[in-house]
Each structure stands twice: as C-alpha cells, then as structure tokens.
Write a structure and sequence with these properties.
The protein is of the alpha/beta class. Helices cover about 40% and strands about 20% of the residues. The longest helix has 21 residues.
Length: about 350
Amino acid sequence: MKKVTVVILNWNGKRLMEQFLPAVLAHTPESLAEIMVADNGSTDGSAEMLREKFPSVRLLLFDRNHGFAEGYNRAMAAVETPCAVLLNSDVEVTPHWLDEPLRTLDEYPGVAGVQPKIRNWKHRERFEYAGACGGFIDRYGYPFCRGRILHHVEKDCGQYDRPAEIFWASGACFFIRTEIYRREGGLDAVFFAHQEEIDLCWRLRARGYRLCCTPQSVVYHVGGATLEAENPRKTFLNFRNNLLMIYKNMPPSALPRVMRVRRWLDYLAAGRFLLTGHFANARAVFRARQAFRQLKKTCQPVRRENLARTCVDPIPEMLPRNLLLAYYLKGEKTFAEIEKS
C-alpha cells in the first residue's frame, strides 16, 4: 500500500497544472505516493488536459466550485493512504520534498501535520507569505510566520533551518494524517477559502496534537494565483474568517476582550483602506463584520464542542501579546525579534 496521496485542488488552473505538475510527477516516487487532482467544476479544459497529458494522475470531478475548504474535504473522503498532502496547484516541489515530512510523521505519532519550508517562486531567495517556515498566531488572532511578520517577508539565509513546532501549517503544502483529518472534522466549509487551515490547526493543537515545520524539505509557491492581495473578495474572506476562527476556538476567559479589541482594530484597518483610496476593501471589512455576526449563532455548537475537547490551554505557540504593537510601535519586523522579545 502506498503511504501518501498528493491531493491538488484545481479550479480553472489548467495553465498552472501544465507548468507545475511535471515537477510533482518527477519528484514523487510512484511506489510511495499517489497523485490526485480534485477538480472544482473547472470550465477551462483542465480535465481534458489532465486526461491527455497526465494519464497517471487520479482525477476526481466535482459538479461545481465548492471552494478550498469543502473541495478538499470531498477529495480527502476519497483518499485511501495513511497520509495526505494538500498541495496548491501553483507550488513547485523539489527533489526529496516528501522525505523529511513523512519521516517526522513516521517517528512522532503525536504529530498530526507538517509543512515544509515555503519559498517565493518569483523571488526564490525569499520566504513566501503564505506559510514561510511555519505559522504562529498572536493573542488577537493575527497570523504570522517564521520568515514573515504581517507584510514584511524575510530573505531566507538559513536563519530558520531548525525544525520547529508551530501553531499552524500552510494550506499551500500541508502534510496531514488522513484519519486525524477526517476524525477532527477537516476544513470548515463555511470559510470557503482563506484561513481555514489555521482554524483546523488551532482545533488540532487545542486537542493535544502537535504540528511541525521541517525546513529540510523545500517547495516554491507562486501565491496569489487565485485572488490578488488587494482583491476586495480576499479582504472580505480574510476578515470574516479570522473572526469566525477566533469565535470558534478562543477560550472563554479571553474571548470578550479579544472581540472588543478586534472591533476597533478592524475599524482602523478599514480607515487605512479609505485613506489609501482602497474604498472597495474598506467596504469589504464592514461587510465581513456583518457576515460574521450573521454566522456567529450557527457556529455556537462548534464552539461548544471545541471548548469541551480542549486539553491544551494556553497553546505554547500562541504569542501572548499584540503583534501589531510589536511591529508598528516596537519595530519588531522579523520572527527572530519577536521570539527574542
């Protein structure tokens, strides 16, 4: 039996798969892994291209775009191997990229998920925004990484080449045990896209599972291939989903204060968008907060379950202070500075 399934979720990514699938096939031993593409109702001829050019790839066809979260949930239901890799279609893998993450999962049964070092495909000496060398979070729900604090992305000089336990693993290249993914509920389909992997990892950490980054494995991520950074839709999803994630997972002792502070910080973010002429993004912040309020009640049963099953509190990888203050007032622009402080 093969050990791992590489699951690539595709939505109108024909060009990306033509570009990046050859490296996945070249650097993924057939004896070790199956490669699966789950197509989210593409209309660009992706399925026909895959059948013609990549006949060894297992193809799942969905009737429509279910989003990142539900698309992966449906794909994971078809995985037959003990482990899976959620791999974005715009990721270039390198030789032996599977070795260290799979070795970590083999040797440490308490580890549920692993991510490799993720560099920027366009600027290859730099870390990539979405994951870098392992994800963390501050007390107010702001994600950051070894190698990326807010929008400041570091050059990779080997400063984070030590394997580390992390708060969250990037959905761009996320190794996870199949059984744990299914048992713990997978990605939350309500999120549709953005930050759903952080929500899943928060749930896993609170329930006692561990997550790691193995920087000996390196991949290159294009990033922003679906939605650009300043896209109002992306702004809406990031702000709404971040609030949902906080509400679902934050312990009751901290939640009221965190939500009060976040309300004002979100309004400040909207004001910054207005001052810089990004009016659609400012509206997206207000729409996100409204959508969160509408969804909050439906998330109450999930929150109760999460709190009932929490056995790690506080989570060691959560920064016990405000990342924004550290960045803007103290000038701490790198993970090493944050860690030292």
